[in-house]
Amino acid sequence: MNHNYNYPMYYQQRPTYPQVDTTQLKSSAKAFQPLMDDADKVLNEFVKSGDFAYNVKDAAQRSQTEKIKIYLTQLGVSHQLEINYNPDAIKITFINQTNSVECCRLTVSLKW
Q: What pTM, to 2 d.p., does this model score?
């Protein structure tokens, strides 16, 4: 018994995509590099200065987020920051922009 079925052939049309433009990606990557420099300053200070580590944790325990931002900017951190903490850890997010639009974030999470 020969079952020869004729099914119509369907051709899937490939989706069309816009021309690849890496301008924003390259700009974001360039803007990200100074965030790594800022994070490096903070991490180095935590490592080398017990007083700095104490002051940041003490301010967090007192819910003094603005004081923590002051400590970080005194190290030369120049980008926008978001600080979050809880009894277990601190999370510092460094934020940068290109063309007045947020392009990149670097988040450092450290256990207390």
A: 0.80
